[in-house]
Amino acid sequence: ILKSWRSWRSATAVFASSLCFPKDVMETLADQLEACHRLRKVMSLQMLPRYVSFTLVDVQHWPMSWQQDRGCPVYIYERRPSYPFYRLLLEEPWASLRQCSNADSESSDIRRVQNSRVGFLLLCCLLPLLSSEKK
């Protein structure tokens, strides 16, 4: 996928079945996605390690051949029309909450509850700022 970048760099939407991509491949892919100026949506089976011009808008569970019952998390990003600071603040707690709900049975229940409480508290503090920006 990284070598064929020139053939898909003018795409407007990309799905990366990136479940087994190593960290260095994900980092290079993230850089390539940033360089695709026509790209509007990205869907990936792993969270992007970094992004500037995109925002995480949803995490959905899509059925996959290896996980039909619960589905596999698919991270959906959209390109930002601009770079408002408040969206960056909202993404991390939201993603943390999603990861806590998707955590496997090996994670300790206490740790998941602590992480979800911190994420929930941050969202409660930041969401009113978002609604005041729209007024």
What does this protein structure show overall?
- Residues 83-87 have low confidence and may be disordered.
- This protein has 135 residues and is an alpha+beta fold.
- The chain has a four-stranded mixed sheet with strand order 1-2-4-3, covered by helices on one side.
- It is built from four helices and four strands; from the N terminus they run H-E-H-E-E-E-H-H.
- Helix 2 (23-35) links the parallel strand 1 (13-16) and strand 2 (41-44).
- It has helices at residues 5-8, 23-35, 85-102, 109-134, and strands spanning 13-16, 41-44, 54-64, 67-79.
- The chain is globular.
Please outline the helices and strands:
Blueprint: H1 5-8, E1 13-16, H2 23-35, E2 41-44, E3 54-64, E4 67-79, H3 85-102, H4 109-134
Parallel strand pairs: 1-2
Antiparallel strand pairs: 2-4, 3-4
Helix pairs in contact: 3-4
Strand order across the largest sheet: 1-2-4-3
Query: Could you report the average pLDDT, rounded to the nearest whole number?
Result: 76
Q: Would you tell me the structural class of the helices and strands?
A: alpha+beta
| Rg measurement, Å | 16 Å
Strand coverage percent: 15-25%
Task: Count helical runs.
Answer: 4
Question: How far is the N terminus from the C terminus?
Answer: 43 Å
Estimate the helix proportion, in percent: 40-55%
Q: Which sequence of SSEs, written as H and E, runs from N to C?
A: HEHEEEHH
The biggest beta sheet is recorded as: 4 strands, mixed
Identify the overall geometry: globular
Stretches with pLDDT under 50, minimum 5 residues: 83-87
Number of strands: 4
